[in-house]
Amino acid sequence: MTQTTTPEQQQTPQVRAEELAQIVQGELVGNPDIILSTLAPIEAGGPGALTFIRAQNFAKHWADSDCVAALVTKGVEVPDHNPDERALIIVDDADIAVVRILEMIDPGVAHPEAGVHATAQIHPDAEIDPSAKVGPGCVIMKGAHIGANTVLMANAYIGGGSHVGSECLIHPGVVVGDRCVMGNNCIVFANTVIGADGFGYLPGDETRGAIKVPQIGSVEIGDDVEIGACSTIDRAKFGVTKIGNRTKIDNQVHVGHNCIVGDDVLLCGRTTLGGSATIGDRTMVGGAVVINDQARVGKDVKIAGGAIVLDEIKDKQTVLGVPAMPARVALANVAAQRNLASFCRKVEKSLKKLDPDFKPPSA
């Protein structure tokens, strides 16, 4: 049986603008008695709505917004503000202030009740901390360990010899394969698979089909890692596939066997890492990026969405394109490509003047 939330508990608490300014340690410019009850984008607000203005290009929308208050990053000028009717709260960083507010009003997700649900299947040799919560339909195999205050929601599967640390939240349908290790304070969203076999085959020939290479390694996930829904992290052929501390992985990401992903890395949705790829600390990878087998990406790198990384990217570079290259080069190539057809036509006309018999390739 799971905990439920009543409609009364789901309502966002109301707060006066003056009180909110004190909570976020901001400076109030405007009516202190405005009542705030919800958060909204600047273009979609209404009565009681609080929005945020992180940069100057957003400030121009304030005059037409129906929001009654805004968190504003210090240094941003907001034109057409009426302090009698609306309120601005000036803060060091509007994005961080929004995060603090969201943390305060976040209703969270419904957890199973304390203990082990009657329908869960637990091997006698599994170790489950008494403070853990194990939901309906979960399966925990021989030798598995579940740490203190960890929550397994419905139908999670924890394989033999696997270790899930303390304070983790495992959403419904997650599979943690045999011998995989997860640190503390991790979140794994629905239907993600950790420890699927790496895609290892010896190609077939005229005499036989492809031969499967056993994948006997494991996956090691650090502390404070978040993994989105429907992602897959393959186990190593031998050794480990490793995800560093505080790394955040979006939905539908595939990390191939024997990859090493550093600390504080961000991997956006539909990114694919080929086998044995390496990503350094604090690197940001945009959506639908492909990183080739054995490619090496340095630390503090930024990779734009849709890029394909073929070999190596050194520390602190910003790259984009197919294949991925430094941003300045890629943008110059795009600009040149836009004018390529016009340039070719001019060249053809010039050549025809020089040689009346000249025929362009398209002729």
Description:
With 363 residues, this protein is an alpha/beta fold. The protein has three domains: 94 residues, Udp-n-acetylmuramoylalanyl-d-glutamate--2,6- Diaminopimelate Ligase, Chain: A, domain 1 (3-Layer(aba) Sandwich), CATH 3.40.1390; 214 residues, Hexapeptide repeat proteins (UDP N-Acetylglucosamine Acyltransferase, domain 1, 3 Solenoid), CATH 2.160.10.10; 28 residues. It is 15% helix and 28% strand. It has six helices and 41 strands. Strands 8-11-14-17-20-25-28-31-34-37-40-41 form a twelve-stranded mixed beta sheet, with helices on one face. Strand 40 and strand 41 form a beta hairpin. The chain is flat and about 90 Å long. The termini are far apart.
Count of the domains: 3
CATH domain topology of the largest domain: UDP N-Acetylglucosamine Acyltransferase, domain 1
Largest sheet: 12 strands, mixed
Instruction: Give the strand content.
Output: 25-35%
In whole angstroms, the N-to-C terminal distance is 74 Å
CATH class of the largest domain: Mainly Beta
Please state the average pLDDT score.
93
CATH architecture grouping of the largest domain: 3 Solenoid
Low-pLDDT sequence parts: 1-11
The CATH superfamily of the largest domain is Hexapeptide repeat proteins
Secondary-structure class? alpha/beta
Number of strands: 41
| DSSP helix fraction | 10-25%
Q: What form results from the Cα inertia axes?
A: flat
User: How are the strands of the largest sheet arranged?
Assistant: 8-11-14-17-20-25-28-31-34-37-40-41
CA-based gyration radius: 27 Å
Number of helices: 6
